[in-house]
Amino acid sequence: MEARVLVGWNVRRIRVSKGVSQERLAFDANVDRSYLGGLERGEHNPTVDVLERVAKVLDVPLRDLFTDYDPEVGDIEGLPPGRKSSEA
Question: HTH cro/C1-type domain: which residues (predicted)?
């Protein structure tokens, strides 16, 4: 698996497990939401600065974004669609 695909998969896996929307993560990490979506799909090659901000918002060590893919996890279910309240 390419590194950027692996990083994107881990960002999505961690974000969903913590119940954080793409919109909230993007806002808090100071990146565009569409960029974050592309990052999760492995379409973007993020800088270390972006990865550091994303890891900080997700409250995980940066190394967790590089964890090997676990085929047992399989596809990651998404969060329910729709905007989340700003109080979340």
Answer: 11-65
What's the gap between Cα 15 and its chain centre? Answer: 5
Q: What are the tens digits of pLDDT across the range 31-73?
A: 999 999 999 999 999 999 999 999 999 999 999 999 987 666 6
Q: 3-66 in CATH: which number?
A: 1.10.260.40
Q: Is 63 exposed, middle or buried (0-12, 13-18, 19+ CB in 10 A)?
A: exposed
Kindly list the domain boundaries of the chain, sorted by start residue. 3-66
pTM, 2 dp:
0.81
